[in-house]
Design goal:
conserved putative lor/sdh protein from methanococcus maripaludis s2 fold, OB fold (Dihydrolipoamide Acetyltransferase, E2P), six-stranded antiparallel beta barrel, 21 strands
């Protein structure tokens, strides 16, 4: 029986596809095995070597540093008091502007037309009062007519003053010198009274806000001059004045202290940066201390790895004052707790460790 040529072609194609598929599958499996062989897999049967030290209690050096955050001395949303269409925008985001500088101009044509009419009424009322005053002096008219003319004059004067003030309010200006951090309008925007147009931040002066432990609070008083330093400009020292000592502390017995610092053109500061208050403390009380090497993260959001029975647990802590390479621990640890000072880069929470 003779097989059709088309059938042979299908049979040969099927065999070829089967062979190609088998070869492709084998190659993929070999490649997968090679890739998996190169991927690092942590051996959880092995403990991570670390160095530790015990949390101790000691009197810190009298020279202390308290970390805080700079905030603007003043900031506010500049709001419009008029209503209408913005016909001129005079600022852009990030721009430094002086006190009294124009921010936006609102269309005042209709108010000016009203003012023209009101000033005409005022002039007519002034003439009426003058005329009735002469007539009253000569007993030509009753005094009540003069009284009515004077009342009309008072209303006309009031209307002119109101319109002039409303026209002045169509020019929105900066209440103090600062930086425009946000612009909330465009030319052509129709605004209403009370709508914010821009957020203005004063950076010529900044406030450094630090949390002072109860034991050190008596070292600070309003009006006191202090020294402020930053990590951003380590060679610069800023002279600050304490503007506020908090009357209420938090649960950890820390009290907010505000230090006003003049900004520097040579070493400029920005709101949100960290700064440190340097001061000499008379406190001789022992406090819980760890090495700076144990710190994970920043002193504002601090944590350490605490070792307990061969396992390292990530432990959040609260840092107080700092003295050189030593940090005061306000909460989160106990005396004699073991904390990792070397090897943290290889750790995650609940990692088994071996102490070297």
């Amino acid at each position: 029986m003779k097989i059709n040529t088309k059938v042979w072609r299908f049979v040969i194609a099927g065999v070829l596809l089967t062979v190609l598929g088998a070869w492709t599958y084998t190659s993929l499996m070999d490649n997968k095995a090679a890739v998996e062989g190169r991927v690092y897999e942590r051996d959880f049967s092995r403990r991570t070597p670390v160095q530790v030290e015990k949390v101790s209690k000691k009197v810190l050096s009298q020279s202390k540093r308290l970390l805080g955050t700079f905030e603007p001395n003043r900031e506010l949303d500049v709001k419009v008091q008029a209503q209408g269409e913005v016909v001129r925008e005079a600022i852009s985001e990030g721009q430094s502007i002086k006190q009294g500088a124009l921010i936006a101009k609102i269309d005042d044509d209709q108010l000016r037309y009203q003012l023209i009419a009101a000033e005409a009424d005022l002039k007519d009322a002034q003439q009426s009062v003058s005329r009735y005053q002469n007539l009253t002096d000569n007993d030509a008219v009753a005094k009540v007519q003069l009284d009515n003319a004077q009342l009309r004059l008072a209303r006309a004067e009031s209307q002119v003053k109101v319109l002039r003030k409303q026209i002045n309010q169509t020019a929105v200006t900066a209440p103090f010198s600062g930086v425009v951090t946000e612009k909330m309008f465009e030319k052509g925007t129709v605004v209403s009274s009370g709508m914010p147009l821009a957020h203005l931040v004063e950076l010529s002066k900044l406030k450094l806000i630090v949390q002072v432990p109860e034991a050190d609070l008596l070292s600070f008083r309003e009006g006191q001059n202090v020294t402020v330093v930053t990590d951003v400009h380590p060679s610069a020292k800023y002279e600050g004045t304490i503007s506020m000592v908090g009357a209420k502390g938090d649960k950890a017995h820390n009290f907010p202290v505000h230090i006003t610092v003049a900004n520097s053109e040579e070493y400029p500061l920005r709101a949100g940066m960290y700064g440190s208050l340097q001061f000499e403390s008379d406190d001789q009380t022992e406090t819980m201390v760890i090495s700076r090497e144990a710190l994970v993260g920043s002193t504002q959001n601090a944590s350490v790895y605490k070792v307990n029975e061969g396992v390292a647990y990530k432990q959040p802590i609260v840092i107080g004052s700092t003295s050189g390479e030593e940090l005061e621990v306000i909460s989160g640890l106990q005396i004699n707790d073991q904390v990792v000072v070397n090897g943290q880069i290889n750790l995650s929470d609940s990692t088994e460790v071996v102490i070297r």
